[in-house]
Design brief:
The protein has about 220 residues and is mostly beta strands. The chain has 1 helix and 16 strands. The protein folds into 2 domains: about 40 residues; about 180 residues, Porin (Beta Barrel). About 15% of the residues lie in helices and about 55% in strands. Strand 7 and strand 8 form a beta hairpin. The longest helix is centred in the first third of the chain and has 30 residues.
């Protein structure tokens, strides 16, 4: 049997150089991917039409102990499938608000449909790029009629109110939950109709977000 060929110094050098080139290429591609994600200016959404449903959205005023819980559904659309990451940019509208009054406890809440559409504005995101964990949104121009038996009836929501919400993004990119942000979830009394109403109420509760008309999630990716 013949002895196995022993690689010479030139062969070893060429193999080492090839490995170095391959390593450098892989590193460059990974670095390019990271840089591209870090400087991504836009978010892309899989569907422009959305539905958010709260099985129990609470309107609370702790000082006078008013707490109303209702099932609430908001529907609307985003203006574009591409959303620039620009703070306070108007990106969509809520065009339908449905509150099941028969589901309410502690009082009643009705949307003021004459004020629709309500504005949806981009605020921010959290997480380390490219892994976004939440997207911050603002709801403005919303108006509702609140009624608490034997206490008050009033209309809430003024032009300067901005209800902040946090949309939770799962690892696969789907938006699952939407919840008001405590401390930035206040609606201001616009007009008292009867009784003595609190000057502000807070909105609390976690809703689920879907594509309109389905149970499919809206996905968000960086571009």
């Amino acid at each position: 049997m013949s002895a196995a060929a022993v690689p010479n110094k030139e062969d070893i050098s060429m193999r080492a150089s090839a490995k170095l080139v391959l390593t450098a290429l892989v590193t460059a591609l990974l670095l390019a991917s990271v840089i591209s994600s870090a400087f991504a200016r836009n978010l892309r959404i899989s569907s422009q039409n959305f539905r958010v449903t709260w099985n129990s959205l609470e309107s609370t005023e702790p000082v006078v102990r008013i707490t109303i819980r209702c099932r609430v559904t908001l529907e609307g659309s985003f203006h574009s499938a591409t959303i620039p990451k620009v703070e306070r940019l108007l990106i969509g509208a809520t065009t339908r608000a449905n509150i099941k009054e028969e589901s309410c406890t502690g009082g009643r809440i009705r949307p003021d449909n004459e004020t629709l559409p309500w504005h949806v504005t981009y605020e921010n995101f959290t997480g380390t790029l490219p892994n976004i964990t939440t997207v911050g949104l603002l709801l403005s121009r919303a108006s509702v009629l609140l009624e608490v038996p034997l206490v008050c009836t009033g209309r809430y929501g003024i032009a300067t109110d901005n209800i902040s919400g946090t949309a939770t993004r799962e690892a696969g990119g789907g938006i699952t939950l939407l919840a008001p942000v405590r401390g930035r979830n206040l609606a201001t009394l616009e007009r008292t109709i009867s009784g003595t109403c609190p000057t502000r109420i807070s909105l609390e509760g976690t809703g689920e977000m879907f594509q309109l008309g389905t149970t499919a999630r809206i996905t968000v990716t960086l571009i």
